[in-house]
Design a protein that fits this description.
Elements lengths: L4 H4 L10 E6 L5 E7 L7 E7 L14 H12 L3 E5 L23 H14 L4 E11 L1 H10 L13 E5 L4 H6 L7 E7 L7 H13 L4 E6 L14 E3 L12 E3 L3 H15 L2
Length: 271
């Protein structure tokens, strides 16, 4: 059961650890993932959640704070949540400082999203027509590509809707060929200097002119990772891709943006 929007941000988060799962991906890859299950018998709506370039886990192999926070929060609201590990499954660590990416948002990560969709659709507890896609940063970019018309899965079901937190929008926006088949919500900080908001605003404007269902919310003063549960704003250096090209960008929690995003995403996924 989905809680009301008013009570959603006040609900206590689930404390149970996620299940470790493995499922087949493309090209012979076996994908590891973390699966959160809500209480009850279901069937439940579900979410595939895609990590950013830092990966899914910390150095000790545990889920990083943002993924744990969102996994617990969504499960508390009645969603099954699957977080596939695109990097660890391939023996790779964080990729934020690597310019040459073997696992690309436009290809391998789209395949991983489809594989996760197929895995969830095969679970008895899942509502097959209510599986959504969500991603952060590099995972948000992957959401954009996965939502594109040409990347529809070959078999049903398809994703019901999609949410992209601070994605890199420049390449899709500049291509002039990006069109979404899914209802899409983009959430980004107006001050983001890692993946700037301007290309996303342009992408959303073009989509709306084409009568495609894209919404965008920009948060004044918010940087990258604004939805993190507790990350002090600081500068990260030596990044492979940033808005300024200097390799430097700000990242950290913005409490107002985080609170709005939590309420907004829960309401959006519950439509």
């Amino acid at each position: 059961m989905i809680l009301s929007l008013a009570s959603a941000t006040q609900a206590s988060l689930a404390q149970s650890d996620p299940q470790a799962v493995q499922f087949p991906g493309a090209d012979g890859v076996r994908l590891d993932g973390a699966l959160y299950m809500p209480a009850g018998k279901g069937p439940f709506p579900a979410v595939v959640a895609l990590h950013g370039c830092a990966g899914l886990t910390t150095k000790d192999g545990s889920l990083s704070a943002r993924h744990r926070d969102w996994g617990e929060r969504l499960a508390e609201q009645g969603f099954i949540v699957l977080l596939p590990d695109s990097y660890g499954s391939r023996g790779m660590g964080p990729q934020c400082r690597n310019a040459e990416r073997e696992v690309r948002p436009s290809r391998e990560r789209v395949s991983d999203a489809k594989a996760a969709l197929a895995y969830l659709a095969g679970l008895q507890q899942v509502k097959k027509n209510a599986i959504s896609l969500l991603g952060w940063s590099n995972g948000g970019s992957s959401v954009l590509y996965a939502a594109a018309q040409q990347n529809a899965p070959s078999q049903q079901p398809d994703f019901a809707r999609a949410v992209a937190f601070y994605p890199g929008c420049r390449l899709p926006a500049e291509s002039g060929t990006w069109h979404t088949r899914l209802s899409l919500l983009i959430l980004i900080g107006a001050a983001d200097d890692w993946t700037p908001a301007a290309p996303c605003i342009s992408l959303a404007s073009d989509a709306r002119r084409a009568k495609e269902p894209v919404e965008i919310v920009t948060y004044p003063g918010a940087y990258h990772d604004f939805d993190h549960p507790n990350l002090e704003v600081h500068v990260v250096r030596h990044l492979a891709f940033t808005g300024s090209g200097t390799g430097m960008a700000h990242t950290g929690t913005n409490k107002a943006a985080r609170a709005d995003a939590i309420s907004r995403v829960l309401a959006y996924l519950a439509r």
